Each structure stands twice: as structure tokens, then as C-alpha cells.
Amino acid sequence: MAVMAWLARLALFYTATFLLAGASGEDGKIVNGTTAGPGEFPFVVSLRRAKSGRHSCGATLLNPYWVLTAAHCVRGSSPEQLDLQYGSQMLARNSSQVARVAAIFVHPGYEPEDKYVNDIALLQLAQSVALSKFVQPVRLPEPRQVTPGNASAVLAGWGLNATGGVVQQHLQKVKLQVFSDTECSERHQTYLHDSQICAGLPEGGKGQCSGDSGGPLLLIGSDTQVGIVSWSIKPCARPPFPGVFTEVSAYVDWIVETVNSYSPPSSLWVGQLIVGRSPPSLSS
Predict the structure, then answer these.
(1) Is residue 112 part of a domain?
(2) Of these four, 11, 29, 94, 101, which has the most CB atoms within 10 Å of its CB?
(3) pLDDT tens, position by position, for the chain (284 residues)?
(4) 185 is catalytic
(5) How much is the pTM?
(6) Are residue 46 and residue 126 in the same domain, yes or no?
(7) Cβ–Cβ under 8 Å, residues 201 and 192
(8) Peptidase S1 domain spans which residues (predicted)?
(9) In a domain, 279, yes or no
(10) 194 part of the active site
């Protein structure tokens, strides 16, 4: 009986901790990261509340018309309530490089009550953004491409530097380790979905925090986005719990289908291929 009572208390504690750490527009900023170099992540953009210009989530540019982010960052919002700052690593509420949102496409299977499964959304921009040295599309992985456990990855975002900390005004980055699906589920003491991946450090201390949600996890040495920041246990970067990401490769078909269903036609960088047409030339 004592063992059963202890297990029940453990389950209750874990459930409460998960709920407190669940994804929200305020979740996802980087703990113990370093400042990104000039032009290092030209596809990372800041998703903001249009009225205040306040950063709420990360996102990535897919092409001049489309942006990728987490569903929990935009669900319940209307397009006119959101905008995006692009082309700069410094947050600025009065930035001149701001794009309005024309439409929001939340994955139809998104379910926050089921470990935030299908936590992915697309934003269609009201006008195209001009590509340049500091404004570039991100590369998507091949459909259903497996990201191996122990792979090295980098997370980029403006999130809090710690639970209860402050938003970072300059884009931050941190190197993380990808965990296998089995180890991820073991560390979280619950079965996670095949469409989710985990990344962090075995000893904790580095990873996502509030404000990083919707931002990218990228393979080291590549512009390939393998994950979207979804949720984490708080306090941020707490061992043994790695951060949980939506696995982008599980949704490439949905992304391509959604983008191709609307005009104007636009390209996507998938693996080694440009889906749609040749990439546009870059301005300086």
C-alpha cells in the first residue's frame, strides 16, 4: 500500500509539473546559450503580438510567403492579432521589417491534451518578404526522415535565459544532443508520440525556456530544421527531462500540400530539392 501511495503521489506530481510546463505563447526561451553571429540564422523570425510588438514565439521562414511555427503559439489568434519581425537578430518593437499575417493554418490533428501532439502551424503572409543575405528560407528534411539519437543539434531563439528570467533581446543559440525516442520516453516517464523528438543535455542546464516555442531545432552544420519547440518541464532545462519538439519530417507532406493549395505558387526547400520551382535570386 505504501508503494502504491508513493507511485500515486509521483504520478500526481509529474502531471502537475507537466501541466505547469505545458506549451503556451510564453513558453520556450534559451537557457545558458550564446549570442548568434551576424546572419547565422537568417530564417529565424520573431512572432509578435501586432498591437504591442511584443515577442511571443519563434518561427522560421519557409519562403517569401510562408512561415512555420508551433500550433500552440497561434491557436485562438486571428491573423490581424499577429505579425512577424524578420531580417534582424535584435528584437525591436518599432522595426521596419515587419510582415503582416494573412491566414493561419493549424494542423487539424493538434491536441494539447495529448502531450501537444501535432503542435505545428503555418502562417501565410499578407505580402511577400524580399530575400537577402539576412532573410533566407530554412531547409526542410525529407519526408519521414529519421533524426538519429545522439545527433548534435542547435536551438535558436529569444526565449528566457531561465525560469523567471528575462527575454533575450539578441538571438541566442545553444548546442544540444538529440535523444532517441526510447530514451526520451524513459526520461519523461511517459510514452511520447512518434512525431515528437527530444533534445537537451543528459545533465541538464541548457535548452529551451519560455519564449522559444515555435522556434527551430537544426542539425549541426546544416540549415535543415528537424524540430519545432513544443514543450518542456519547468524549471527550464531541468534534468533528466529534455525539451520536446515537433518532428518536422513527420509533417513535410502536410506542409507541401498546404502551401501548394494556395496562390501564389511558391517553392519549398525540401532535402536537396526545391519543391515548386527554382529558388529565387537573392538581393544584397
Answers:
(1) yes
(2) 29
(3) 443 443 343 343 334 333 333 444 333 346 667 899 889 999 999 999 999 999 999 999 999 999 999 999 999 999 999 999 999 999 999 999 999 999 999 999 999 999 999 999 999 999 999 999 999 999 999 999 999 888 999 999 987 766 666 677 899 999 999 999 899 889 888 889 999 999 988 876 676 787 889 999 999 977 799 999 998 887 777 788 889 999 999 999 999 999 999 877 789 999 876 665 444 444 43
(4) no
(5) 0.85
(6) yes
(7) no
(8) 30-260
(9) no
(10) no
- Find, among 133, 154, 107, 123, the residue nearest to 61 by Cα: 123
Same domain? 49 vs 79 = yes
Residue 229 included in any domain:
yes
Question: Of the residues 56, 77, 213, 249, which is catalytic?
Answer: 213
Of the listed 27, 77, 83, 119, which one is catalytic? 119
Active site residue 55: no
Give the N- to C-terminal CA distance of the chain in Å, as an integer: 70
- The cell 548546442 sits on which residue? 175
**46 and 125 inside one domain:** yes
| Marked catalytic residue, from 72, 107, 188, 193 | 72
| Pairing state between β 172-179 and 34-35 | antiparallel
